[in-house]
Design goal:
With about 200 residues, this protein is α/β, with parallel strands linked by helices. The chain has helices at about 30-35, 50-55, 70-85, 150-160, 165-175, 195-200; strands at about 1-5, 25, 25-30, 40-45, 65, 90-95, 95-100, 110-115, 120-125, 130, 135-145, 180-185, 190. The strands form four sheets. The protein has a seven-stranded mixed beta sheet with strand order 5-4-1-6-11-8-12, with helices on both faces. It has a two-stranded antiparallel ribbon with strand order 2-3. Strand 9 (about 120-125) and strand 10 form a beta hairpin. The longest helix is centred in the middle third of the chain and has 12 residues, at about 70-85.
Length: about 200
């Protein structure tokens, strides 16, 4: 089984820091991924300027793919697929998506979780603005694709546009390959300093 961590973005919310190298819950973010992906051969897509530092830290990674274009997560997945002619199933995870080790199901799916650890201002079903925990499931940046031939076709159809968003890819892929939503337990966001501060200490 193969996994792909996407960490080639600008990281503007973290002041440009490489997301894999910041600390969350007392350990580096890449250590979260190592522990969660022990059953996977894991590749990482990163910015070229981070190549040496990431390679030194992620000695457990199977492949490191420098990618200098700012073409979003779809472009990062495409960069990996261009270099490696894999036809295995592929688990794709954003660098700032932290999950503890847990069994992950087979098939095609999008990982989701509730926003119970945050307070939001939102409109309830009656159209009234309220403050509290948003009663909704959101995509957490964790995806599993079993048909890489179809995934490549979708990426080719999207073309070489700058900064494609994952929903663009998912909508085309799900029209052809049955895809479910899978609730993921213990998810933490590591995309900004406030989110990093909320990650509990790992004992």
């Amino acid at each position: 089984m193969r996994a792909l961590i996407l960490s080639a973005g600008k990281s503007t919310r973290l002041g440009g820091k490489q997301k894999l190298l910041v600390t969350a819950g007392g350990i580096p973010v890449h250590e979260w991924h190592r522990r969660a992906l022990t059953e996977y051969q894991t590749a990482v897509v990163i910015r070229p300027e981070d190549d040496a530092e990431v390679a030194a830290a992620l000695t457990w990674a199977d492949r490191i793919v420098p990618h200098g274009k700012t073409d979003g997560p779809v472009g990062a997945i495409a960069a990996y697929l261009r270099l490696f002619d894999d036809d295995n199933e592929l688990l794709v995870v954003y660098a700032d998506t932290l999950i503890p080790a847990q069994p992950l199901p087979s098939g095609d799916w999008v990982g989701v979780s509730s926003l119970t650890d945050r307070t939001w201002d939102y409109q309830n079903k009656y159209g009234v603005w309220t403050r509290g925990e948003l009663p909704a499931m959101v995509c957490i940046g964790l995806y599993r694709f079993t048909d890489l031939h179809e995934l490549r076709r979708v990426i080719n159809e999207l073309g070489d546009k700058e900064d494609h968003h994952l929903p663009d890819l998912l909508n085309l892929y799900q029209a052809r390959v049955y895809t479910t939503q899978v609730p993921i337990t213990g998810w933490h966001d590591a995309g900004d300093p406030a989110a990093l501060a909320r990650v509990p200490e790992i004992l």
